[in-house]
Amino acid sequence: MIILAAITFAACNQGNRQGSQTDNDSGTAAAPAFSADSAYACVEKQLAFGPRIPGTPEQEACAAWLTAYLRALADTVYVQRTTVTAPKQKSLPCINIIASFNPAAKKRILLLAHWDTRPYADKDAFDKSKQFDGADDGASGVAVLLEMARQFGLEKPSAGIDILLTDVEDYGESGVEASYCLGAQYWAKHPHIPGYKADYGVLLDMVGGRNSAFYYESFSRQYAPAQMKMIWDVGNRSGFSDYFRYENNGAGAEDDHYYINTIANIPTLDIIATQPNGNFMPHHHTTNDNIAVIDRRTLQAVGQTLLNVIYGQPFNY
Boundaries of each Peptidase M28 domain copy (predicted)? Predict the structure, then answer.
């Protein structure tokens, strides 16, 4: 088990650690440098398992690797195993993975992303039944959080941090109420610690695609407007104004954050790429969602911005 953890940890830790960066002109403490190379390698590692579809061997193999990776870094790792009911009364195994840093800290931030892959490319122009990699839709958000976890392991932040990797997010069907985000719904009703609360949460979903832009998402504006503005301000001061856009393009996503807000009552925002017209990116739920769409600079923009927030003034909103 120790050898496995060491091997799997190294497999997703490519690239050199860069110098620390600061939140420009804010007077806050220096943040460690986010390694886009390491995050990119984490995307590749997830894709090497194949599509992480609930109920498959690939799901189990990837879950084991994610758990081992985080156990090498976090103070405590929790694994929630349950069964959820997807559309058409399909029972699916669900594996949520939670990594806690600074568990005694009262002020906490919840960071989350889904790690499963949709079972079919229903938006594909040629074969809507085909499986796809889910490089951006799932793997990119997880990869950013894994690289952030590596930084937390090297230099622990003062705030308490909980990383939640949710499962069975993308098995839903349009028009079937509450059929998406089943892992997040389960966690919101059954948190890893009874009565768990965080000051706010940040969801990462589709945060690695080339030419991405992150607009103000509607449920984020409703439930966590101050926290969202704080992060967008830091992103702009950090040199990523082409990514963190203040415009409201009308996009609203029934994403994991919706259920964290409405069930767990933790104000949570969604960093999610959309087009100027409010639609998801063109590769969304198609076979084009593969490693070719992943851009290191997009991963860098999201990861470095969040590190600057967490190591700077994480509750300055």
Answer: 96-309
Name the CATH topology of 2-311.
Answer: Aminopeptidase (3.40.630)
CA distance 166 to 97: 7
- Strands 76-86 and 90-101, bridge-based pairing: antiparallel
C-beta of residue 141 within 8 angstroms of C-beta of residue 204: yes
Tell which residue, 114, 201, 213, 119, has the closest CA to residue 161: 201
pLDDT category at 12 given cuts 50, 70, 90 is: confident
SS3 at position 8: helix
Closest Cα partner for 72 from 158, 8, 155, 148? 8
Q: Per-residue pLDDT tens for 36-58?
A: 999 999 999 999 999 999 999 99
Burial (0-12, 13-18, 19+ Cβ within 10 Å), 229: middle
> Which residues, 6+ apart, have CB-to-CB distance to 230 below 8 Å?
309, 316, 317
pLDDT greater than 90 at residue 84: yes
Radius of gyration of the chain measured on its C-alpha atoms = 18
Of the candidates 55, 114, 59, the one whose C-alpha atom is nearest the C-alpha of residue 253 is: 114
| All structural domains of the chain with their residue ranges | 2-311
Please, are residues 40 and 143 in contact by the beta-carbon 8 Å criterion? Answer: yes
Taking only the tens place, the pLDDT of each residue in 213-240 is 999 999 999 999 999 999 999 999 999 9
